């Protein structure tokens, strides 16, 4: 649901839904990647960077968060 809400630019509701997932399974695939995008859309770049870094620890072989993290280096 959180990813769908991001696609509809309902960033605050997306963040709320994604946080629910995080509470139940912090290693859910692409969770931190999508949280990073939610924070980017809300212009909270510090928290976005933190989420992309978390995603890299969960799935280090996937390039998506590495690419997004390039925005902050």
Q: Structural class of the helices, strands and pairings? A: mainly alpha
Helix percent reads 55-70%
* CATH topology title: Serine Threonine Protein Phosphatase 5, Tetratricopeptide repeat
Strand count, sense and closure of the main sheet?
Answer: none
User: What is the total tally of β strands?
Assistant: 0
Description:
The chain is mainly alpha-helical and 73 residues long. It has one domain (2-69): Tetratricopeptide repeat domain (Serine Threonine Protein Phosphatase 5, Tetratricopeptide repeat), CATH 1.25.40.10. It contains 5 helices and no strands. The protein has helices at 2-7, 11-24, 31-41, 45-58, 64-69. The longest helix is centred in the first third of the chain and has 14 residues, at 11-24. It is globular and about 30 Å long.
Quick recap of the structure?
70% of the residues lie in helices and 0% in strands. With 73 residues, it is mainly α.
Comma- or semicolon-separated keywords:
single chain, 73 residues, mainly alpha, Serine Threonine Protein Phosphatase 5, Tetratricopeptide repeat, 5 helices, globular
């Amino acid at each position: 649901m959180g990813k769908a809400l991001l696609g509809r630019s309902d960033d605050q509701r997306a963040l709320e839904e994604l946080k629910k997932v995080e509470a139940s399974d912090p290693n859910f695939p692409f969770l931190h990647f999508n949280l990073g995008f939610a924070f980017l859309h809300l212009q909270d770049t510090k928290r976005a960077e933190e989420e992309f870094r978390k995603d890299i620890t969960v799935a280090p072989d996937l390039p998506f968060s590495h690419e997004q993290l390039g925005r902050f280096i």
